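thread: overnight batch results

M.L. [08:02]
morning all. the overnight job finished for the chain we discussed friday. pasting input first so we're all looking at the same thing
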Amino acid sequence: MDVNRALLRPILFAGVEKRLMMINILVCFPLVAMTHFKLPACFLGGILFSMLHLLFCHINRDDPHVANLLKRSSRFFWQGYYPPLSHARHIPLRTVKTLS
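M.L. [08:03]
and the structure it wrote out:
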């Protein structure tokens, strides 16, 4: 039984995943809007948008699920050591302190 490829393929907007495109828009548009759409800021915002879009397209060409990967791995960013435990029962449980 085969799974249809359309079910596994992420939804891309101009070659970039939706989450990365929203980050790109939320970074570039306020830069232009804060300066009341002055011409130099519009050029700077357009150039920044284009550069980030090309960077995200290049990243998504290699791995189209990179935004989900970054979202899942961000919770382990501050953890310094990952113990080599293979099963949940090997993980030591923390004791709960109660007020007596």
